[in-house]
Amino acid sequence: MLHVPIGYLLPYVFAWFRTRPRLRATVACFLVSLATENIQLIAKVGYYDLNDLVTNTLGGFVGASFFVWFAFVATSPDWRKELRRYRRWRRNARQRTLYPFARNIDLSRTTLLGTDESEVYDFYIRKLGFRPVRQLVPEGSIGTSFLLEMGESQVEIRCSNLEQELPEQYLNISARRLDKIRKRLEKSGIACGEFQKDPYTDTRQLSFVGPDNVRIVVIETA
Question: Domains, the chain, ranges and CATH?
Answer without folding.
Answer: 3-74 (no CATH), 109-220 (3.10.180.10)
